Amino acid sequence: MKHIYTFRLSILNLVAIVFSGLNYSHIYYYTDTLFCGKIVKVMLYLRILRSKPIRAEFNVGSIRDEEGGCVEYSVENEITKVCSMVRENEFANSVLIRNIGCHLPIEKIFVYLDKHVFRDIREVVVFINYAIWNTRDNLCGNPENIVIFLERDLWSKYLVLFFSEKGLRVIETLSVVNSFYRNILSKLYNLVISPRLYLKLLVTTRGFILKYRNRERIAKVKASSICNGYPVVSAIYTGRKITLDTKERSDFFWLIKSEIPHNRVLIIVDYIHKDNLLSLFDLVKLNPVQTRAPLLSNKDRPRKDEPPVWKPSPLYKKELKRNISLLVRSCISRGIRLNTMFMHCLMDMTYFMIQYSYWYDFFVSNNIKVNLNKNSFLTDCVPFNVALYKSGGVSIHYQDTNLECTTILHSIASDIAISFSPHFQFIWAENNSSLDYSVSCGYITDHSFKDVKENADNLRNQLLRRGVDFILCFFDENSSDWRIGTRSNKSNVDTYKYFLQKVLSDKTLGIIFKPKAYDTLFHRLLPISDLIKEARDTQRCIFVDDGEDLISDRYPSETAQAADLCIGFLTGGTTVLEAYLSNTPSVFLDLECLYSSDVYKWGRGKVVFDDKDDLYRTIQKYRQNPDSIPGFGNLDPWAKERDPFRDGKASLRMGQYINWVYERLADGDTRNEAIEYANRNFAKSWGRDNIVKFK
């Protein structure tokens, strides 16, 4: 008997299944189309279908390979390979893309297009891996009995080719509308037919009224007036607290030990989530400016004391006209057929050029020489970085999370990547990033470890006064019921419930919870709200988060240094890395079973556990006699790979490198000369092996 999986349950897919002549026992689907449910009922009533289609319920963390390990990393590798196939066979041979590549860096254009393919195929690849796991483990079937129906689409032939080589039977079916046109129709539906239009009109009207009332308060400024025309370093504001206090998390930690004058730093604000933002920037003597990039503006309503809004100069229209003309010439040259693939590239590149033209004007008008951005992996940051490249500036991406697998999601199109260590070079090399150099500086916020120690001691004493003799610190990595997510809300509830029960049953045990998304945590933990209250009433259970802004103000190292042992998930691992670097023994709880991780080769039962009971038994044994488990909580081999310095000077190295690039560009050197100068100085001060060239 066959097991049928169809990503999209549509009328044509149902017809294809009926006429396939297959003898099947199950039909699973990922998503369905409008009215499909009613059609299925009719087909079942007429006995045209042999089985009722079942919606596939899963999350990535629950899908296992033949060895019982999580497939998350292998799925990302598969997606990367399919994206590479599309790049080599479609984009590299596109006349349109080649014409654009004569004027703009084509490798960065490829990164932009890769990300669109990644967005389109990611769920499909995950679903196919679910099909393999579900058939093998839940249906006790053979993967040879799997038949996958995919609607014919832009990328379907590459998915068919890739998975057919893995021994799966994948059938392309007809589609009334492929994804390219479906996306357009969906946008038209939302704008014209959907009832949400009326709500949108009300919100928009209200916004215009508020804007009119506050028209004198919201300043529109020309670019040159922001920093008086001086060469500028810009940085993206991400919503963290606006401070230069080393005890609190901030986007501007790199400025603390840098020699760059604060009046030469321009903060780009594209989202305002609170009032009095301008006054807060004034306190740290930084220059903020709002940007309203076309097609990207997410402005909701005027706020009190807003930063000024930058007004594009005539250069924007001039550059946009030149770039759109380039697209038009490409359309009419060499007898190009206007097929679906060409239209897809044309639409993507039109969007790209609109963004690129805006940012090119912004960088030139503001005389911006260097830009810092930790979110360069976002799709819309590619035209942003290309614009800075063409204006003669240098884009610098800095790593702020631990990266464990190669994925197009993390690919970047920057000039420089500031990494924790040379260990992470495989990420940029294998995920098709466009990068000139990687510079290793260490764990970027290690300067804070000593400064938060006093707060950590106060937190620890708060628990010790309640009679505890051992303190755990638990870092979660957020959760959701999104099927592409790693950890479900149910799994998160079970984990919190387990540790809360242990605290209630042991009066000598204290615990500190440091959640990643505090604002939604208690909604996600609603099923155990009574248990949480009971544990908090003991005053031996603390949930830490004081953040007023979008992200917590408190460093993980603050809570880590208050504990005797830190626990975090193997997926991610950034908080565990920070905890261990701040000298607190730390272990991984790997409920997703990432057995492909190198940590399992040397740390099973000592630093990594795939079962909560095994972990807790080991903790109890460690509490009774720490010498009974040599190496428990010792992550030295893992941590040394990720921070070879471990000296608290990462932000100093980062600030020095940025300053070296900036000062040469400010003196009139070309971007390549400035980068070479910074590389020479950095190599002399910190070692040549910490600079890796990619081109």
Compile the SSE list and pairings.
Layout: E1 2-9, H1 11-19, E2 24-32, H2 36-45, E3 54-55, H3 72-91, H4 95-101, H5 106-138, E4 146-151, H6 156-164, E5 169-173, H7 179-193, H8 196-213, E6 220-221, E7 232-236, E8 265-269, H9 277-283, E9 287-290, E10 309-310, H10 314-332, H11 340-366, E11 368-373, H12 381-390, E12 394-398, E13 416-419, H13 425-430, E14 437-440, H14 448-451, H15 453-464, E15 470-475, H16 489-505, E16 509-514, H17 518-524, H18 529-537, E17 541-543, H19 556-560, E18 565-569, H20 574-581, E19 586-589, H21 599-603, E20 608-609, H22 612-624, H23 636-642, H24 650-666, H25 671-686, E21 691-693
Helix pairs in contact: 3-5, 4-10, 10-11, 11-12, 16-18, 24-25
In short:
By secondary structure, the protein is α/β, with parallel strands linked by helices. About 45% of the residues lie in helices and about 15% in strands.
Distance between the termini: 52 Å
Unreliable segments of 5+ consecutive residues: 189-219
Average pLDDT value? 89
Kindly report the CATH topology of the largest domain. Rossmann fold
Q: Tell me roughly what share of residues is in helical segments.
A: 40-55%
Instruction: Report the top-level CATH class of the largest domain.
Output: Alpha Beta
CATH architecture of the largest domain: 3-Layer(aba) Sandwich
Quickly count the helices: 25
